[in-house]
Design goal:
α1 packs across α2. The model has no long low-confidence stretch (mean pLDDT 88). By secondary structure, the protein is an alpha/beta fold. Strands 4-5-6-7-8 form a 5-stranded mixed β-sheet, with helices on one face. β7 and β8 form a beta hairpin. It is built from 8 helices and 8 strands, in the order βαββααααββαβββαα.
């Protein structure tokens, strides 16, 4: 029976990509055939019984090598799918992607179509759920104009900000803006004419402002355009769940 190994890493994309690199190092050192005996745990958690736990330190070079290996050997569409899966909040996302990569590097890109494989199926499930939330939030984000900067606050379930920042960089290349995820204390900061950068930390200070004239107009438009006779709150809650509305101007 193979020794069970748990790689515990920082709860971030960089931390999990580093753990994926170390997982393959451990796998290649094994003399017996690999039997999915390595798992990845992101963030703090309880010690796993009957398994050897290894602390993983985030390493930028390992992240770069892992990303390059996936993109060069499996292609950008597969990398995009795995990246989206890793942005989910599920505790098993790192382990699922590791199992997927072990099979993909051995069998090729066709593993994506083998949904009878539990790792391939799990990755597809996680990626699809992240895609659904991303698609909604790209339309539901509301920026507040604070004069010299636009600020949008979010409270997403998944780690969406890294996936959406390039979209808004393309839409607003000449604007200074911040996309702030309050659940993860993570912000995408865009300076006009430059690329977005991710900033995280407990001491992030996000600018605050008052509702401006256009926000008032938008709220008034939202209120007056409704046809009262066709009001359907159940349908509304289905198309726009309440947890999306926290920072939507028309609902505040």
């Amino acid at each position: 029976m193979s020794e069970q190994i748990v790689l515990r890493c920082e709860d971030s994309l960089e931390g999990i990509f580093t753990a994926l690199f170390d997982a393959f190092v451990c796998k290649n050192k094994m003399k017996a055939p690999y039997t999915d005996s390595i798992s990845i745990a992101a963030g703090e958690g309880e010690m796993t019984l009957f398994a050897r736990e290894i602390e993983v330190q985030t390493d930028a070079q390992k992240v770069q090598k892992t990303v390059y290996s996936i993109q060069s050997r499996l292609g950008y569409p597969v990398y995009d799918t795995l990246l989206h899966a890793l942005c989910h909040f599920a505790e098993d996302r790192g382990t699922a992607v590791l199992g997927y990569l072990v099979r993909a590097f051995a069998q090729g890109r066709g593993i994506s179509d083998q949904l009878a494989d539990p790792f391939a199926l799990r990755v597809m499930e996680l990626s699809r759920k992240v895609d659904n939330e991303l698609d909604k939030l790209l339309g539901f984000v509301r920026f507040q104009d604070l004069g010299s900067i636009l600020v949008a606050q979010l409270a997403p379930k998944c780690n969406i900000v890294p996936l959406m920042m390039d979209h808004f960089s393309d839409r607003f290349p000449d604007e200074n803006f911040i996309l702030y995820d309050e659940n993860r204390n993570l912000a995408a900061v865009h300076e006009a004419g430059h690329r977005c950068v991710l900033v995280s930390g407990e001491q992030l200070q996000i600018p605050q402002g008052h509702m401006d004239y256009f926000a008032v107009l938008w709220k008034q438009y939202f209120a007056t355009m409704e046809i009262r006779e066709r009001h359907n709150e159940q349908c509304q809650n289905h198309l726009l769940p309440k947890w999306y509305r926290k920072y939507m101007t028309e609902w505040n």
